[in-house]
Write a structure and sequence with these properties.
Layout (H helix, E strand, L loop, with lengths): L1 H10 L6 E5 L5 E4 L5 H8 L6 E3 L7 E3 L2 E9 L9 H17 L5 E3 L23 E3 L5 E10 L2 E9 L8 H16 L12 H13 L1 H6 L4
Parallel strand pairs: 2-3
Antiparallel strand pairs: 1-5, 2-4, 5-9, 6-7, 7-8, 8-9
Length: 220
């Protein structure tokens, strides 16, 4: 979370989108910015060694057997003009096409006839419209949460690998970044992390680890 947020603040000064993929050293649970901490704690129980509140919305996500990514769109980029739900669908469409290259068929969850309000409690147990599902629609494959701010849009998304029969991470990374590049109208290029990354992100590590942020979304 700390690195995603630091990158979001840094990339907000740029004209180019940024993308990164990362894994998890051990099982963790993240939950949405607007969720009640006590409810999340009681719902998760002993399912995780750690709880982390995201800066983005959405519901509970259990990490450990997933492929997690962060996408940052600076406010000056054309993609920021796209309606949020359309952007959400386009990102999941890019994931679907990348998975299709590995012969993994998926489908988008259709919009309901009657819209409901509220935050999903458990992201992968309560799929919403335009989430990416298995081809039979029984299990959620991918979801994401967004935050729109003055600097741009932060997207934090993940793919549940436990519902995929076969998956090549390296092949998917190349396919997905290619699809995102087409979607955003950009040519991909790799950028090295700064040597002082740990120092730069240290204040945000402290922020997201604090009880005041975890419980009340308050920064000390």
């Amino acid at each position: 979370m700390a690195t995603d947020w630091w990158l979001f603040l840094e990339q907000g000064e740029s004209e180019k989108p940024a993308f990164r993929h990362y894994g998890w050293s051990f099982p963790e649970v993240t939950f949405g910015y607007g969720q009640d901490w006590k409810w999340v704690r009681d719902s998760v129980g002993k399912d995780s060694q750690k709880l982390v509140r995201r800066p983005t919305g959405g519901g509970i996500v259990r990490h450990g057997q997933d492929w997690t990514y962060c996408l940052i769109l600076p406010m000056g980029h054309d993609s920021c003009c796209m309606p949020p739900l359309d952007l959400y669908e386009e990102i999941h469409g890019a994931i679907a096409r990348a998975l299709a290259e590995q012969d993994i068929a998926t489908s988008l969850k259709p919009c309901p006839e009657q819209k409901t309000r509220g935050i999903p409690g458990d992201c992968f147990q309560e799929p919403v419209a335009r989430d990416l599902m298995t081809n039979d629609g029984r299990a959620k494959v991918a979801g994401a949460a967004m935050k729109r701010a003055r600097r741009g849009i932060l997207v934090q998304g993940t793919i549940d690998l436990s519902v995929l029969r076969s998956f090549s991470p390296n092949e998917f990374y190349g396919s997905f970044t290619t699809e995102l590049s087409r979607l955003l109208g950009e040519s991909p290029s790799f950028v090295d992390w700064p040597d002082e990354l740990e120092k730069l992100r240290a204040p945000f590590v402290e922020r997201f680890a604090s009880l005041s942020w975890l419980k009340n979304r308050v920064v000390d």
